[in-house]
């Protein structure tokens, strides 16, 4: 056994993060590490990377006990970590990024760029043959950046174990597939991979073994071939998977949002669609198909020159977020940390920032009342079942699912006519996912038009009453009812991908 | 316990400094008269620092403050020479400064120019205008006695300057901590994109912050001129670095890592106490700068090391 962890325990100021976790990983295997948020996955990984010192338990490498006191020691043992938040230098190419923090090949006192390029080209040929190596990281897609991280992990001293923390969370299916190929090539080289993911289908397809953590302890492990998806969900949550509620197709209700002749995509083609009251419209497309950009135009975070967007018949000025909010719009962005939460301010202020008039000391005065802030926060906490301490704590003290609920709660207390959801449950555990889905349905049932995009096929199918597929700047399919199947969606998403995919 | 040290450690450092100087020099430093005098000495620095605090709340820097202090004094005296009545002249100075501040804020927010660069450029322009107005000379004379009273003497038993400190400090604290616009400014400083997507308007709010900073700097230029009875085109030069030193010291107080008005006042007081105390002890001004700089560095380092340990 390459890596063998037994009975790992760790407490943080009283709270048990790990309570006897076991993990065995063989060389050349792809090992799925599963568990809800807070199950102890990240603490376990931090123990491997030397960021956390376990209180008890052993870590053995090739049967020999090791203590890992720091990042450098983890590196020396051949452990490599690819975190969810990528850490590439934006204006460096893949080659330059791969050597950051590594020993540069030299000719005399100078860096030998040719040797660098050769070394990386060799690794890339094996792992990701179609990755452009001479393009700055800023111009690469998220999926391509992941590939650069993998190449970087293989540069320098030989890697024995690569840990990937939700690498496909923000990738479309096409890009995820490319990443899976790279992972398989890694394992073919004899490198062990620990693969953390919330996407069970992916784990079933990619991994050969699994370990499930629950409440800091190993709840089960074994060969993927001997377990099925419901079995994994049972192990993770101790309960059955929440079945998708049947899609209630709304009756002929009036259109709430109408988007007409909006110039879009590289060819400036015009797209038009409408969402009726009570309807959840799912938008699907590969990364780079322009989903997020379309959502931002509808929300007014980006302008548009032609075309028209109307909410309840009122024309919304291009690029005016204020117009949307005034007309009853609400937006839950894709990236909680960078576009959603103001992490330096309290939970209560994060809930109030979209409408500070709701927390006034006196209705007529522009003074914010601490009591009003607190009351609003507690009301939202109760309505959404947010697990939090004080409303004046910082939002990052909460789990991912609870942080996500704050972004919904921000819009509470006013009539919502349009709800825009960009990847509503990214990095959220199974339980909170179901709650957030229920929340989105609740807004729809109250008469709002919901515009959602997600890369998670299960989520798309569970929530949408209708799906639009974007490819190459066009709507390539509009699917509902019996036509709404994964095969039809994927087929439409790839209609232009062969020509337009930047990675090809 | 560590939380308490974190919130109030900087305030404690100020009290320790005062106690130490009082022990060494009980008669001169520790007297009530001198302590009140310190509040007067810190006023001009503190007002510039309060302006800097408002700009730091939106996560930006304003490097034009020193230039605006000099500009404020020179423009005021230039208008006096033209026979403009003092109240009108002061209003004109504040409005001119507001226009410069709004310009910086607009460039920073609308075109997403780094505030370092934008305010360095605007500050350079203001410096040029200042030298052009006075032809590079210090301006004396034509300064009405009534005008000079806003920067000297006492009112209800406290130095007039101390009242300015109290008034601007209170107003800025209300602005940042109590008024809605303060929440918006801090939201922009905390996460500009998140604030924008939640409906906070970036351009007008950022312009407002820079305008406040510019107006307060110009006010300091006016008060400085009233106090010393002349205006010098480089008179504000010393305020930029010490003002930001006060803000950074203040960011270590009360609230973790955020510019805040009470903290800035404590920071300005620390700088003023060190300056006053060392002068009383007869330490040369060069050595004073070295000591002040070292103390600020030490204060910030102690907190960083403390945080890594905790």
UniProtKB/TrEMBL annotation, chain A:
PROSITE patterns: ABC_TRANSPORTER_1, ABC_TRANSPORTER_2. SUPFAM superfamilies: P-loop containing nucleoside triphosphate hydrolases (SSF52540). Residues 3-240, 251-497 form the ABC transporter domain. Keywords: ATP-binding, Cell membrane, Membrane, Nucleotide-binding, Repeat, Sugar transport, Translocase, Transport. Pfam families: ABC_tran. The keyword Cell membrane applies. InterPro entries: AAA+_ATPase (IPR003593), ABC_carbohydrate_import_ATPase (IPR050107), ABC_transporter-like_ATP-bd (IPR003439), ABC_transporter-like_CS (IPR017871), P-loop_NTPase (IPR027417). It comes from the Bacteria. One of its GO terms (molecular function) is ATP binding. Gene3D superfamilies: P-loop containing nucleotide triphosphate hydrolases. Belongs to the ABC transporter superfamily. This is ABC transporter domain-containing protein. The lineage of its organism: Bacteria, Pseudomonadati, Pseudomonadota, Alphaproteobacteria, Hyphomicrobiales.
From TrEMBL, chain B:
One of its GO terms (molecular function) is transmembrane transporter activity. InterPro entries: ABC_transp_permease. It is found in: Cell membrane. Its main location: membrane. One of its GO terms (cellular component) is plasma membrane. The chain crosses the membrane at residues 40-58, 63-80, 86-106, 113-133, 153-176, 202-224, 236-254, 261-280. Pfam families: BPD_transp_2. It is a multi-pass membrane protein. Keywords: Cell inner membrane, Cell membrane, Membrane, Transmembrane, Transmembrane helix, Transport. The keyword DNA-binding does not apply. This is ABC transporter permease. It comes from Xaviernesmea rhizosphaerae.
């Amino acid at each position: 056994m390459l890596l063998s962890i037994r009975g790992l325990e760790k407490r943080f100021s009283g709270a048990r993060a790990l309570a006897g976790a076991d993990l065995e990983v063989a060389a050349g295997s792809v090992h799925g590490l599963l568990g809800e948020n807070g199950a102890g996955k990240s603490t376990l990984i931090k123990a491997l990377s030397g960021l956390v010192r376990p209180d008890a338990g052993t870590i053995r490498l090739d049967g020999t006990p090791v203590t890992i006191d720091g990042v450098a020691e983890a590196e020396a043992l051949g452990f490599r970590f690819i975190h969810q938040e990528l850490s590439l230098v934006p204006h460096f190419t893949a080659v330059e990024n791969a050597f950051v923090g590594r020993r540069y090949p030299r000719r005399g006192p100078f860096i030998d760029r040719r040797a660098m390029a050769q070394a990386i080209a060799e690794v890339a040929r094996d792992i990701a043959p179609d990755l452009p190596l001479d393009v700055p990281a800023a111009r690469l897609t998220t999926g391509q950046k992941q590939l650069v991280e993998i190449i970087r992990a293989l540069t320098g001293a030989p890697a024995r174990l690569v840990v990937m923390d939700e690498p496909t969370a923000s990738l479309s299916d096409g890009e995820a597939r490319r990443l899976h190929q790279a992972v398989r090539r890694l394992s073919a080289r004899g490198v062990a991979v620990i693969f953390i993911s919330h996407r069970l289908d992916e784990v079933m397809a990619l991994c050969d073994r699994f370990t499930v953590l629950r409440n800091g302890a190993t709840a089960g492990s074994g060969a993927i071939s001997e377990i099925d998806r419901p079995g994994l969900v049972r192990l993770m949550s101790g309960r059955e998977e929440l079945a998708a509620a049947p899609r209630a197709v709304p009756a002929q209700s009036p259109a709430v949002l109408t988007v007409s002749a909006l110039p879009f995509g590289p060819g400036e083609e015009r797209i038009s669609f409408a969402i009726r009251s009570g309807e959840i419209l799912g938008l699907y497309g590969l990364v780079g198909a322009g989903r997020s950009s379309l959502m931002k135009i509808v929300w007014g975070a980006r302008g548009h020159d032609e075309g028209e967007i109307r909410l309840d018949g009122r024309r919304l000025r291009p690029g005016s977020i204020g117009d949307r909010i005034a007309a009853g719009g609400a937006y839950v962005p894709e990236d909680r940390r960078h576009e959603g939460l103001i992490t330096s301010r309290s939970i209560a202020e994060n809930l109030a920032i979209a409408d500070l008039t709701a927390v006034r000391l006196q209705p007529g005065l522009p003074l914010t009342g601490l009591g009003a802030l607190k009351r609003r926060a507690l009301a939202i906490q109760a309505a959404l079942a947010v697990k939090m301490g004080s409303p004046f704590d910082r939002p990052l003290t909460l789990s991912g699912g609870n942080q996500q609920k704050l972004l919904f709660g921000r819009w509470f207390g006013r009539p919502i006519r349009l709800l825009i959801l960009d990847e509503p449950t990214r990095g959220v555990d199974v339980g909170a996912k179901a709650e957030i889905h229920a929340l989105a349905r609740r807004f729809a049932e109250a008469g709002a038009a919901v515009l959602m995009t997600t890369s998670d096929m299960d989520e798309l199918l569970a929530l949408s009453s209708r799906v639009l597929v974007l490819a190459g700047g066009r709507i390539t399919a509009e699917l509902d009812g019996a036509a709404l199947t994964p095969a039809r969606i994927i087929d439409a998403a790839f209609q232009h991908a062969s020509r337009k995919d930047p990675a090809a | 316990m560590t939380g308490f040290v974190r919130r109030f450690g900087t305030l404690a450092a100020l009290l320790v400094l005062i106690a130490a100087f009082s022990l060494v020099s009980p008669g001169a430093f520790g007297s009530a008269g001198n302590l009140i005098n310190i509040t007067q000495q810190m006023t001009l620095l503190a007002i510039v620092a309060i302006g800097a605090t408002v700009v730091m709340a939106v996560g930006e820097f304003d490097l034009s403050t020193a230039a605006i202090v000099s500009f404020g004094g020179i423009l005021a005296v230039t208008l006096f020479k033209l026979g403009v009545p003092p109240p009108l002249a002061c209003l004109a100075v504040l409005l001119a400064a507001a226009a410069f501040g709004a310009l910086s804020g607009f460039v920073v927010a609308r075109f997403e120019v780094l505030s370092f660069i934008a305010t360095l450029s605007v500050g350079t322009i203001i410096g040029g205008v200042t030298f052009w107005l006075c032809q590079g000379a210090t301006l004396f004379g034509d300064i009405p006695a009534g005008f000079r009273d806003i920067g000297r003497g006492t009112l209800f038993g406290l130095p007039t300057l101390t009242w300015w400190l109290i008034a601007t400090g209170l107003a800025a604290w209300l602005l940042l901590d109590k008024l809605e616009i303060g929440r918006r400014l801090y939201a922009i400083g905390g996460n500009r994109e998140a604030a924008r997507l939640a409906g906070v308007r970036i351009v007008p709010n950022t312009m407002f912050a820079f305008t406040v900073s510019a107006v307060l700097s110009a006010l300091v230029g006016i008060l400085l001129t009233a106090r010393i009875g002349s205006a010098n085109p480089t008179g504000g030069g010393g305020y930029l670095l010490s003002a930001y030193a006060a803000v950074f010291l203040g960011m270590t107080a009360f609230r973790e890592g955020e510019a805040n008005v009470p903290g800035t006042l404590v920071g300005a007081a620390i700088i003023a106490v060190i300056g006053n105390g060392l002068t009383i002890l007869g330490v040369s001004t060069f050595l004073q700068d070295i000591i002040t700089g070292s103390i600020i560095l030490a204060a910030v380092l102690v907190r960083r090391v403390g945080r890594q340990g905790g």
